[in-house]
Amino acid sequence: MDSETTDNNTGTPPPPSSAPAKPSASQTQLPPIAALFLSKFDVHTGYDLKWYRSLNSNTYSSKGLEFKSLPSGLHSVSNDVICFTQEKCTEISTGASPDHNLIYGMSIYRQNKQEQQLDTNTGAVDRDQVKMYSLGILIDPAHLSDAGTPVTWKPKFYSACWGYRSDLDKLLSDFMTSDDSDQEDLFCDNFEQYYEIHKFRGPNDLTNKFKDIMKSVNINRRKSIQTLINEELNTNESNASITENGTSAATSVSEPSIPKCDSALYDVAIDDEHMISGLLPLLEKMGPLIFKIWKLSLLRKKIILYSPQQASTFAIPCDDGSHDVSQREKRASISDFSKFIYCISLISSIPKEIRLPLIKSGVVNLDDLEFNTPLYNICVNDISFIKSIKNGFLASTTDQIILEKCELYDYSLKLESINLMNHINEDCTCDDDDLIPKIARSGDKTREAKLATSRDFQRYKLLYWNFFSESNVEDSIGFLNKNEIDNQEISLPQYAKKTTEPVSVREFFWKAFSWWATAGGMESKQDEYEIEFALFDDLSKDEIEKLVSLLGYFQKLTIKLFNLLIDIVNNSESDHLNEQNLDENSIDPESTRVNGSENEPLVPGAPKNERQNSGKTIWIESQDVYEMGLDPYSSSDCEFLIELISVWWGKEAKIGGYLGNMCCI
User: Fold this and answer.
1) What residues does each domain of the chain span?
2) Angle made by CA atoms 256, 339, 307, in degrees to the nearest 5
């Protein structure tokens, strides 16, 4: 990198050779940037940070940006979007974990066109003619504000860079039309001007104040209009709900509906290109494993996504009718992975309505546990940084060596190329396990895949029916037939069943015993179908509303799970205090024995020493596990629940009760 381009105050830039890229219409909505940079990869000289501007070169270091913005494997694609994180350099050490001091970055990668890479004599690719560049930005979350108020909702940090994609792509495309290095240097003037327009200017800058005032006015105006619309809709619905006998429908039992997600999401300009747009593709590609990754993320595990780069033997149909893999992408794009990481972090976040109950219940550290932090793409140069991170994270990588360092992460998620997976149902006649999504524990030499539970599979069928099935028309909503849902297995992705645990022996025998004990009165699977399906009765066909509804569905699952856990933890604490008071009031050994027998924990099968430590051990009945939305017959769900209580409350938990212990559940 040229020394003259590393500082903000380094002389006058050369005159521009063309007009600078015009700011987009939404430029006033874009967050301010802390740095703008251009990276280059050359087959002879390797990686190079060709141009860099920042607010402060000490705070916003350029170290390693050329590697972050040009990760390995990009030579196989013509363009991509790379999201990443960078550690903010501070003079005063706070002693906090590095993940508390992150700045977010994004770069646009492009190769020059294939015809420009060909040797005119031989027609083969001339490596000397291959140009690979990446134009990127850095954003400091401390600079983000909403109408003058600092942003505290972390997902806004995670997606702050995403709105710059179009502008950066246009700037880089114009730059790559240059024929020689002299023209490239002249084009850098456009970068300089763009940086000056979008850089952070401080809270006292009049331009920022004007933007904040206008944004505040627009937000209040939208809210006022929406309030009037809602009041009119509520009035119309209220009038329409009056029955013939004058009774309001509001007096009847309300039907379940899809919960609304955190209100903070509605302050975000969501469109088809927002990062949350990856949620539906993630659901479709993951299959039932979407629930497994949701649970692992709730445990705040360190999870790394990756896609194998080796060629697959699976033939993809081309537009001309032939089949050729070599002409298609052989890995999932980094851009797709960035969206998936953002979506996983969102669906496993803690909704606002349960924050206070969690704090009151004695959660260890909610600030660290509220979100699973996205690190986005990581490379070999990030290894020392990753080792220093204490909390969980979500990341992706194209470097196989990172996966070989088991101490860096807890679980890996392998996803095949999206292009390959799109054709599995239509054209795949082979049983290639490499095309199946796979979750594996770090350090597991057997690389045994972690599977979804049978209850997860049933839930996925319901989601697939509502979001992807062509059979789901308006006439079918509200008249769900069990056979229709069961037949959905036919149209599900082929890997859906393969990624699900088989029905366990104890589940089979327990359900048979329950059916016999209740004289056939056991709750049927159809009842659960109808309850879950009723959540989507008002599902809109609008794609954005679908995304919000799906996010709301996962937040409902999270709220349901934690509300029951909060009750159990609070009751356990209350029982423990009562036992302590009774012990203090005991006068002699005989009275101690009597008092102890009257206040025995509701777990008759618990050993004596465990009963004495019941204040430290939380006992959960199998029925509670079921009501939390989990599978009490699945050992993986029971292990998840035990670890969840340990991570969030620092307490020991055990699953079981009288019948549970008898039946080894």
Assistant:
1) 3-208, 263-313+329-546, 553-662
2) 120
